[in-house]
Amino acid sequence: MSCQTPVVVALDFEQQADALNLVSQLDPSLCRLKVGKEMFTHFGPQFVKQLQQRNFDVFLDLKFHDIPNTVAKAVKAAADLGVWMVNVHACGGSKMMSAARESLISYGTDKPYLIAVTVLTSMEQGDLTELGINLTPEQQVLKLATLTHSAGLDGVVCSAQEAVLLKRQFGKDFCLVTPGIRPASSEQDDQKRVMTPAQALSAGVDYMVIGRPITKAAKPLDALNAIVQEILNA
Ligand SMILES: O=C(O)c1cc(=O)[nH]c(=O)n1[C@@H]1O[C@H](COP(=O)(O)O)[C@@H](O)[C@H]1O
User: Fold this and answer.
1) Which atom of ligand 1 is nearest to the CA of 119?
2) What is the ipTM of this complex?
3) Which amino acids bring their CB within 6 angstroms of ligand 1?
4) What CA–CA distances, in Å, run from 135 to 131, 140, 141?
């Protein structure tokens, strides 16, 4: 059965055994899984394959940002790995994003979702100013999402705080993937532009990436179930 909820659990663990211990308690109909830079650097494609063998959809979150040729080839390598979703940085620009999209044409309907990171959810106004960007986070997200949409990608990573604006601008089929999701009882950690699961759902997000509120909970399965319940009740 394919996944019935928008939850994507971010598997950010140092030890593969700890990640697999959590995964063995999870059901692919209740969540998808994200593998990011830490675990992919430690454990590589073999780790992704282990998750796929357990019937999970895998979001390979390596946020590619490089010259067009390099990113196109990296995205193609992700497609060869059979991942469900892969991302690039929208800051890499239109040419880079177009090259990434074109590298997936030969995969037809088997291609992974290709999405672009706009403004990291850990960033706020001061972080943009520091980079010489004199726009609000929302304006910068809109600018990068416009480039992403024009380059023909499937959607963006943004915060749930920008979801209403982006759905209004680009329509319901432009996929919104939102980290920075925090149940009311959770710590914010290093996330800045946050929303609760219920708020994110009503803002119209398609997928919620959630890590520490689940993985660092005393009882991760209970934490996930509570989040799913909050979404179902919203
Ligand atoms: O692309 C991402 O997944 C991502 C983009 C972004 O803007 N913010 C963000 O937090 N992420 C990832 O989403 C996950 C969030 O984890 P928690 O903050 O533990 O819920 C991490 O694995 C981040 O690498």
Assistant:
1) 7
2) 0.99
3) 10, 12, 36, 61, 63, 87, 117, 120-122, 157, 179-180, 189, 191, 209-212
4) 11, 6, 9
For strands 7-11 and 207-210, give the pairing: parallel
**Which fold, 7-233?**
TIM Barrel (3.20.20)
| The ligand 1 atom nearest the CA atom of 190 | 18
Q: What is the pLDDT along the chain (234 residues), one digit of tens a residue?
A: 689 999 999 999 999 999 999 999 999 999 999 999 999 999 999 999 999 999 999 999 999 999 999 999 999 999 999 999 999 999 999 999 999 999 999 999 999 999 999 999 999 999 999 999 999 999 999 999 999 999 999 999 999 999 999 999 999 999 999 999 999 999 999 999 999 999 999 999 999 999 999 999 999 999 999 999 999 999
Q: Which residues are catalytic?
A: 63
Residues paired with 113 in a beta bridge: 85
CA 209 to ligand 1 centroid distance, Å: 7
Locate the ligand 1 atom nearest the alpha carbon of residue 212 and give its number: 19
pTM of the predicted protein model: 0.98
